[in-house]
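User: Quick sanity check before I run a bigger batch. Here is a single chain. Can you write out its predicted 3D structure?
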Amino acid sequence: MCRTLWTPCIFSLALDESTGICDVAQLSIFVRGIDDNFNVVEELIGFESLHGKTRGSDIFEKVKSYLENQQLDLSKLLSVCIDGVPSMIGKAAGAVALLERFLGRPLLKYHCIIHQESLCGNVLNLQHVMVPIVKCVNKISARGLNS
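Assistant: Done. Predicted structure follows.
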């Protein structure tokens, strides 16, 4: 992936692990940060196939590796947005728990797949896909009978 050309004052991650139709797990890593001049940057910094197991430790190692390759200062990591799979949210062996243990401090954790897809849609200019998806989700969420 492309090299981050900015040095954020603080940043957050959006992580998504999903399995495609080929039965291969994919890990997407997005970073969103703000620099000294209040410039907000969103960037896809990693997209990796996870062959074999998709345990929290496997995901954590990929994330840690990508952040080190991008030379992002982990002390500036504030929050993580994740989907709800156990390998991400597990209290003992989930990727976020392992990341918190590695950093020695808690992180703000958010659970929202739409946020991740929105980041992807903005980065890849897929608004023609995201607008109908958001409308559908809003319609379903608006009334209990719709779901």
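Residues 12 and 66 are 14 Å apart (CA to CA).

User: Great, the batch can go ahead then.
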